[in-house]
Amino acid sequence: ADQHAAIATRLESLGLLASGVAHDFNNMLAIILNCTEFVAEDTGDEVAEDLNRIRNAVKRARELTSQLLVFAKREPTQVEIVDLNVVVTDATDLLRRSIGANITLNSQTCSGALPVRANRGRLDQILLNLVVNARDAMPDGGAVTITTGITEVPEDPARNLSAGRYAELAVSDNGTGMSAEVKDRLFEPFFTTKPADKGTGLGLATVYGIVGDAGGTITVDSTLGVGTTFRILLPVVVHPAGAEAETPETPESGCG
Ligand code: ADP
């Protein structure tokens, strides 16, 4: 629980810092990006090549700042009741296309609905971050599996969980796995083992923040040379408010 508190405090102060920097930085980058595009239109090949390099660097920097913005929660988000199974099913095709041909991605959702209180875009972000990490852990290809289900949890102060029914979202890979040192630090903001042009170290810190905001928890099981499973628990919404009609009153038994 101490570790939870320490990470939470660190996330908060970093979030404040990051949101200010990222917002301004992002606007400046947008201007630079537009200028290079204008210049590229009326100059020769070599200049165009250099401009292209600039443009790629700027694009990458913009990706970083937009990640920072999500991380810092500056982007306003709306919390609604969403069916986690629908989110997973809808995201699967897109995720499959974005991770490359040498990796298979399967999702196995429990039958029925898994209503949780969260922002849909953020759930997509969680899936994307976990799946991209899985891909990066499998340079020679492999398999990613996303599964969902319902699990009953007793009171668990160590994990900051109250007793109840939780929707479980697991993302598994058969990649490199990770050492105990990496496992200890992987949710820290800016902790990465990837080269500077690939890793930001914000992926899992973001996931951690989103899951925490939604009243859930995330754990990791990993074995070097075998693979890794991230497991997220989110409280199941048992009595959705009347207006949100698409979800049933209680989760279907198929998920339980
Ligand atoms: P980044 O992906 O930018 O490095 P993350 O916060 O997403 O940042 O991940 C932090 C580190 O955790 C990674 O650099 C990697 O060492 C480790 N990691 C995350 N996911 C996995 C995975 N599925 N398999 C092995 N290592 C992982």
From TrEMBL:
Transmembrane segments annotated in the record for this chain: none
Protein name: histidine kinase
Subcellular location: Cell membrane
Residue intervals of the Histidine kinase domain: 20-238
Covered range of the whole protein: 355 to 610 of 730
